UniProtKB/TrEMBL annotation:
Catalytic reaction list: (4R,5S)-dethiobiotin + (sulfur carrier)-SH + 2 reduced [2Fe-2S]-[ferredoxin] + 2 S-adenosyl-L-methionine = (sulfur carrier)-H + biotin + 2 5'-deoxyadenosine + 2 L-methionine + 2 oxidized [2Fe-2S]-[ferredoxin]
Domain Radical SAM core span(s) in chain numbering: 56-286
Pfam entry (one): BATS
Organism, scientific name: Actinomadura meridiana
Biological role stated in the UniProt entry: Catalyzes the conversion of dethiobiotin (DTB) to biotin by the insertion of a sulfur atom into dethiobiotin via a radical-based mechanism.
Cofactor remark: Binds 1 [2Fe-2S] cluster. The cluster is coordinated with 3 cysteines and 1 arginine. Binds 1 [4Fe-4S] cluster. The cluster is coordinated with 3 cysteines and an exchangeable S-adenosyl-L-methionine.
Official protein name in the record: Biotin synthase
Subunit structure: Homodimer.
Binding, [2Fe-2S] cluster: C118, C151, C211, R281
InterPro entries in UniProt: Aldolase_TIM (IPR013785), BATS_dom (IPR010722), Biotin_synth/BioAB (IPR002684), Biotin_synthase (IPR024177), Elp3/MiaA/NifB-like_rSAM (IPR006638), rSAM (IPR007197), rSAM_sf (IPR058240)
Amino acid sequence: MAPMTPTALDDLLDSLVSAALAGERPTREQLLEVLRAPDEDVLDVVAAASRVRRRFFGRRVKLNYLVNMKSGLCPEDCGYCSQRLGSTSEIMKYSWISSDEAVQDATRAVAAGARRVCLVASGRGPSDRDIDRVSATVSAIKEATSDVEVCVCLGLLKPGQAERLSEVGADAYNHNLNTSEQNYGDICTTHGFDDRVQTVEHAKQGGLSPCSGAIFGMGESDDDIVDVAFALRELDPDSVPVNFLIPFDGTPLAGRWELTPLRCLRILAVFRFMFPDSEVRASGGREIHLRTLQPLALHIANAIFLGDYLTSEGQAGEGDLAMIADAGFVVEGAEDDADAAPAARHDLVAVRRRGLGSSLPANT
Ligand code: SF4
């Protein structure tokens, strides 16, 4: 297919912005064109998505924080996951942490600016005893910190389990579709796409705010990206994590590096046009795939995870906060400090002691 002319791309982006601001769905062909936009036009795509983001979220960035309550040793075989059956990734493996540990971790994150804490555990799905345990933790976090949202992510739900979490004050449930229905069998064989859809439906029926997104960089085509975006829209999620594959050694997708920073921005823009007023979160893998372009992602997404992921380290929390401030955004909940001058960063000024005039090699 011939690339679009600059004028045709401008028209497409104007029409996507108008539709998004009116709450209308983009068409499949429009989203495919966004994914095909040439590298030299990606800033135009970002600017268009940014108009939508600004209308609904201003310059706020919501910080989410992951609490990994149970790590590794999962019986499922999701190919992208370092905790999967047969994974030889050298990750930390542990059984349930105590409620006290979870509360301490969550409280520190809230003090650092997190508005939502996500309680996550590996596994196919929770037993009723697991629901008891997590319910106690949800209640304890709600008691210890005011004004924090608690999201729970425990895998496939059975009927009635969402209701129990909702009764103790959980706000949301995360369960991602991850990839298109067509592609699903290539990334997991122990459960199916329909199982995942059903769990999001259980969460909604149980009164929990649905959080569901996807992972990219797993061999999917542009059509797969658009397919999963449409499948997610059918579920009407309140928040949509957009993950980029972290290719762990010891998993089937080890060594797979197929994303570029510009492709990540196009994918994020697709999700902003599809979910104009939902929380779109630049999630796992943003540091390693967006790299120096991370701040541009903030013009499209209105949320990120603060700090580390479940089994891999993220950018330092301080680095996240500095990036948000430097790019002219403000952490949700800290709007009052938005125009405060930054703290002095003496650590950033280093006297040169290498290259000319020294016996050390130059910085090249
Ligand atoms: S994504 Fe969840 S269900 Fe799949 S292997 Fe990892 S921990 Fe298990």
